[in-house]
Amino acid sequence: MSAHAETPRTRAGARLADLVERVGIHNASLILALIALLVLFGILRGDVFFSSRNILNIGMGVAILGVLAISQTAVIVSGGLDISVGAIVGLTTVSTAMAIDATGWAAAGPLAGVAIGAAAGLFNGLVITYGRVNAIIVTLGTMAIFRGIAFIISNGQSISIFNDTFRLLGVGRFLGLPAPIWVLIGVAVVFYVFLHKSIVGRNIYAIGGNPVVARLSGMDIKRYRVGMYVLSGMVAGIGGILLAARTGSGQPISGSEGLELEAITAAFLGGCAMQGGKGTVIGALLGVAIIGILNNGMILTGVPTFYQMLAKGSLLILAVLLAEYRLNRS
Amino acid sequence: MPDNDIMQLDNVSKRFGSVQALSNVSLTLRAGEVLALVGENGAGKSTLTRIIEGVFPPDGGGLLLDGQPVAFSGPRDGHAAGVRVIHQEPEIIPHVSVAENIYPGALPHRGGLFLDRKTLYARAGEMLKLFGMERELAPQQHCVGLGPAQRQMIEVMRAVHAGGRIIAFDEPTSSLTGEESQRLFEVIHRLRGEGVSIIYISHRLREIIDIADRIAVLRDGRLIDIEPVAEASEESIARKMVGRDLTEMFPERTPPTERCVLSVRGMSTEHVSDISFELHAGEVLGIGGLVGAGRSELAKGVFGFHARRAGTVEVDGKAIPSGRPGDAILAGLGFAPEDRKEEALLLLRSILDNATLCIPDRVSRFGLFDRRKATEIVDGIAERLSIKAPSLNTPVSHLSGGNQQKVVLARWLARAPKALILDEPTRGIDVGTKSEIYRLIADLARNGLGVIVISSEMPELLGLSDRILVMAGGRLTAELTGDEMNENAILKAAMSAERGAHPPDEEVRTA
After folding, report:
1. What is the pLDDT of residues B88-113, one digit of tens each?
2. Which of B337, B360, B363 has its CB closest to that of A216?
3. Rounded CA gap, B205 and B211, in Å?
4. Where are chain B's structural domains?
5. Side-chain-side CA neighbours of residue B356 (13 Å)
6. Could you say which of B328, B345, B368 has the minimum Cβ distance to residue A213?
């Protein structure tokens, strides 16, 4: 579309235009933004910033955010939004820790985390779809509900996990990469195939793009919508498991607060549209990279915490403004 | 220039994309006269009123107001010049009083700050009395829950107090009862007596003959005739409205078979009532009627998009449940809706994606989309339909209207249903593609498909159909076969909406 707008004169220009076309104009601009950030922080704190230790730090920092941003992208593509994911992460760290505490069995943690996440997502999906209530309102409400449940079942206390096998998920390494990054890669691959290659994924784009067309083409929209929230809850459960394994504890709020803000920001940076029907896994990952590097760079350059919050909020609004702008131009 | 001329249209033309909505229309609006505007759907009536109101400017020609050329740059200008249009669905602010709705933006106040309710209610009371509504409406009553007649009257009062000199009514009686219509006619007579110029748009020819002084007939954007009502009859007007010659557009047809592929019995939805008919293999069944008669709603009820309240639908002997288009498709029914861009196509997605939307099983392996298989299937169909596009990966938003419609048809050809409903299959499509689509429909029928064609175009209905059903007010009002199939019979049945034949008035929901 917009890449067609001008015919480049030179051959190099043509080759560049070809490359941009293949990567997608949107992803190309994200990569440019990413490079700009790398250059900026490289100049300011290059010594620390480019150390392998710091790069792994960034990777660890965005692993949980990454899985949430990917599933959030899928939800937004289907025409919804889930702002309860941060709370589900908190709730599942607690339930994971409690399950391991009660059984002493390492696998009980992940099972409980995914199951509780799925149940929370199912509740969201049913109320939104069959109650016909706006997704933002419902998940705003359940955000408080899930937080509340996490506090109630944990009595407001941090629950420690004494199980080294389970903790490998958070602190273990494989081929030099920390386990959470492997989990992120796995989730990304699964969602890439699911969203971009499968028939169900194609239908999700159709449902988000135009629900009337989707229904008239025979799709059972309600089932798909409920399914997307269950999926979102399950992935948030995975995020909760990773967080519990990394910190070695179940915490109702610490570590999971504000994750929804960053996940939604990454999804919109990555090319989602408010109306649904648009968004990619690659875009979400690029959005996550931008947020991760921005967070890390701000800490390294000594930006005070309060100003970091300012920056995060502004970034979300900027991302949505950009998304709207793109939509109006196309 | 006679001094009772208010506005003159001088060779007004207007084009929307590839459609010439109005071409070189010249006519005069006189004070104290009711000018009726008639024509088929899409003849240019609404475009004409919008130009007079100033919603958009003409491309060619101009308007003269009191002999002086004017150029309205928006409806605000038109209103200031005294032009008012009363639309089919009047704009009323629901949670505000009747009085405030009559005087929006012109409320009396005290000290520049406080609403002077006493004066407002007194004025509104007088206005209501003037229109004979004082028993029905109180000035302080809230407008939520008012009926269409009352809303309309409030809008007329608004137009009159704002100094309306030219008032256009767009299908004003379509949702009124007989008594309410009579009262409206009295109001129109009085306004005419006071020197207001009235434009009256309606499909109800008898009503027009009763109320109008002159009748202007539009067809395909041209003014065909304008004559005093005394010289007109219902038949002569209808003839002028449709009078097109049926050229070689329509292909030879083979007779339908006896096998029933779609049977609808006693179907009622929120929008249509008591619909029963059968469609046979190899048959083209036309459905005619005016806009708003419920034709698209019939299709959506049959297809299961709208929930059914009563009745059954069977496709090839298999009953299909209500509210589940997916099951209708599985049973062998297809539906190409009227609004291609909103209801049929995913505009940002490719031809390939759009054409394979209803055949997920045939284009997948282990749940994954199989691009090669899909391309194979769609390639053949695209060739058969001669879809013109750079490639199958082209987003359908880049295609012309005709090619977009072919992509919709490709979707159903790929699915190979037993019965196919086409809602306005040639709307906004050029003549060449139109005849291609007609040939395709004939072809499909020859191969045993049952086709329903919903159309507002008389030649299309008459040229394609083996049988024609006519709808009015959400019901079937006629079934025409053989020699009964002619324009007059269709128009008559389409305009025969009896009072009380309307479906229950409820909020429209889309789920």
Report:
1. 777 788 788 888 888 887 777 777 77
2. B337
3. 10
4. 5-92+146-242, 259-332+417-496, 343-416
5. 27
6. B345
